[in-house]
Amino acid sequence: MKKKILTILLLFLWGFTSCDDGKIYPEDNVNGAEGSTLKITAQISGVTSWPSSYSVVVAGFGDSDYAIISKGIPTPQIEGETVSVVLSGVTDKVETVELCVINSLRKRIATFYKTDFEVQADTIYMNAGVVDAGIFNGIQQTVFNGYCTNCHGASTSAAGGLYLTEGKSYAALVNKEAVSSPDGKLLVKPSDVENSFLLDVLQEGASKHYHTDILSGSPEKIDLLKNWIEGGAI
Ligand code: HEC
């Protein structure tokens, strides 16, 4: 008899605690609130080419250019080394996950790898492959490919003889004399923004063709070019 009472009591207690243990929110909601965990792997180079006001990160973005969540990439000991970053608490506000560079305001400056994101219960594994995260590649992807190559080399000809396409742009700019500079300025003079004609063209309209409107709405792109030159145009 005593045993029976004890069993009933135990069953009651078990029922009580397991009930307390139960989920209050439906599965989806719990994940949405607490977020997913992402593990991203990449063979990365160029991380140290950025000035300290920028960070190479894995970040989640919603509908704005400002990162909702981010985590720094560990500096690889060897260029091209495989690094892994774990980002947890990625909620359903995040629409894309990117291997990118953000500035001190957390604004996206350059993206090297991007993928759509949806919350999942299990850890999500991503492989970004081989990534050149260097500052010059950042400029190529965000500035030249987006705003310049249409005229400067992507079609059959290059405006002003200047190729700003991938693989050609660096050699066409760094330590090259500008065709349209009356004082024979270099297009890019490493560590010397004042004497780099590229910025005279973009900010002061120094070429015959009007250029000052192109990046006027994105001062952070002009800053990116200046920072690259100041850092030695590597
Ligand atoms: C709509 C076409 C067009 C676009 C877009 C354009 N350019 Fe140009 N660019 C030209 C033309 C045409 C010239 C030659 C003008 C001249 O003879 O002065 C030129 C000349 C230049 C020069 C001077 C070259 C020299 O040796 O003197 C630089 C530097 C330059 N562009 C940079 C850029 C950059 C950087 C971008 C993107 C942010 C860009 N351009 C976008 C048409 C364009």
Give a structural overview.
The chain is of the alpha+beta class and 234 residues long. It folds into 2 domains: 28-133, Immunoglobulin-like; 136-230, no CATH class. The protein has 6 helices and 7 strands. A 4-stranded antiparallel β-sheet has the order 3-2-5-6. Helix 3 packs across helix 6 (219-230). It is elongated and about 60 Å long. Mean pLDDT is 88; it is low at 8-13 and 15-32. The site of heme C has 23 residues, from helix 3 and helix 5.
Detail the topology: elements first, then pairings.
Elements (H helix, E strand, L loop, with lengths): L1 H20 L5 H8 L1 E10 L9 E7 L7 E4 L8 E10 L5 E7 L5 E9 L7 E9 L2 H14 L20 H5 L23 H8 L14 H12 L4
Parallel strand pairs: 1-7
Antiparallel strand pairs: 1-4, 2-3, 2-5, 5-6
The site of heme C has 23 residues, from α3 and α5.
Give a short synopsis of this structure.
This protein has 234 residues and is an alpha+beta fold. The chain has helices at 2-21, 27-34, 135-148, 169-173, 197-204, 219-230; strands at residues 36-45, 55-61, 69-72, 81-90, 96-102, 108-116, 124-132. The chain has 2 domains: 28-133, Sandwich (Immunoglobulin-like); 136-230, no CATH class.
